[in-house]
Fold this sequence. Notes:
Blueprint lengths: L9 H7 L15 H29 L2 E6 L12 E8 L6 H12 L6 E5 L2 E11 L5 E11 L2 E9 L4 H4 L2 H5 L11
Helix pairs in contact: 1-2
Amino acid sequence: xxxxTAMSSMPNMAANLGQPATDGQAAPDNGLGAQIQQMAQNxxxxxxxxxxxxxxxxxxxxxxxxxxxGSKPISGEQRTxxxxxxxxxxxIGSLEDAAEAERKHFGAKDKPTAVKLPIGNxxxxxxxxxxxxxxxxxxxxxxxxxxxxxxLLRFETEEDAQAITAVAEAVANTLRITPAKRS
Length: 183
């Protein structure tokens, strides 16, 4: 799983302090290296705490896998990502019902498309949404039902749609579900 956390280049900066200067002499750091090293350790601890909290929030939403791209986040823009969300709902009567619920969730105009994945029958829904900031949210979702559990493999990006269309089918073909133990 992946979540956004504080990123730091401080460890690299700290490692470079005390390296020989270009004239072969050691560069003075006046204790700065130790201070930067301490800052880097603090940022790393904060990053680990943010990750732990972020993963707990995802788990509370039923998200069992979350993969974000490695590019630098842009303020106000959702990260390009794909994730698997497990929804336990005994009221879902069929795969078709689950696919229709997902279509409504996205506000997709087109009907879900039946697809065959290695794990069995599924549906695919896609939609492009115009956002208030002028950007377009591209979304693709694969829907799989296992008893009372619906699994939603969702791809989302505000970048060029190719960022998700290039990988969605290949990733969907790797999806495997281990039935949950029910009491």
